[in-house]
Amino acid sequence: MMELVDIRVFAKISELMSLSAAANVLGMPKSSVSRSLTRLEKHLGVALLYRTNRKLALTDTGLLFAEDAHRILSSIEEVEQKVGQVRLAPRGLLRVSAPVTPGQWMLAPLISEYLVRYPEMNVALTLTSHKVEPMAEEIDVVIRTGELEDSRLAARRLGTVELKLVATPAYLKARGTPEVPADLVGHELLDIFAGNVEWRMDKGAETESVRVHMRFSANDTSTIRTVLLNGTGIGWLPDYLCEEDLATGTLIHVLPGWGRGKRDIHAVFPQHRTVSPKVRSFVDFLCERFGDPGKAAGPRPPGKSTPR
Where in the chain are all domains bearing CATH 1.10.10.10? Predict the structure, then answer.
């Protein structure tokens, strides 16, 4: 099988008609150029050049092969340019998966910005409550919260999510504002867990556990937010879901300083030696936008809507 380097060497020799000149242009020793030519002629089984002490000349076969060699190298250069353009300008379909609520409230608005920045990209977003395995389900990027387990996957940390205990001013006025975690007993409480639940709460190095009963539970925090906004009780919401409500006074932060820890948000993708341009562009974009606390969450849906 012919080596591409031998074709390149012969093309340059046929262009300059000098081994020394070809070696100089290619940055190779003249002996290497000579060996490359000999190897090519041996592979083809024909002489490509007439050699004399004073000059080189192409044989008839050498003339034909030189034309083909230049055409081959031109095609390769064109392919390299196209590949380079794809590398620099991402294009095609990107398949993304995320948990339902973060996907609706945090990710979807940012994807709109991403599509404006990269007009050749298309995004297919899947929102699901189950754990997605990107390689098995042919997903390019998965957004995950919490600890990562699969070492076969590459990951970039985007930021953190913190749960906050909140209620409406009307509810707190009617039922009183808890001063310590133990005061939560007897209140109307909302969480993603049903029935009797142990709430473990931290404040610096201090930790308290309170056994409480849920008046309402749902497997979607945006639904819990909707019920909280109706003044039903006190419940936990991720910060991105209640920041604007807290800023406007629609919700009140209950037991500030007490929390349930922070959870990291990661962009996870299959681990390859070379990351595709579309995956790299999207993950880099998310890192950039999540790095801006004022913009990471993006626009919010209407006040009391209940996304599924």
Answer: 4-88
Q: Give the global pTM.
A: 0.63
264: left (phi over 0), alpha (psi -120 to 50) or beta: beta
Of the candidate CATH numbers 3.40.50.360, 3.40.190.290, 3.40.605.10, 3.40.47.40, the domain formed by 162-262 belongs to: 3.40.190.290
Q: Which tens digits make up the pLDDT trace of 69-119?
A: 989 988 888 787 777 666 667 889 999 999 999 999 999 999 999 999 999
Extract long-range pairs of 222-227: CB within 8 Å, 24+ residues apart: 222/100, 222/101, 222/104, 222/105, 222/306, 222/307, 223/306, 224/190, 224/191, 224/192, 226/304, 226/305, 226/306, 227/190
User: In the chain, what is the greatest distance between 2 CA atoms, to the nearest angstrom?
Assistant: 107
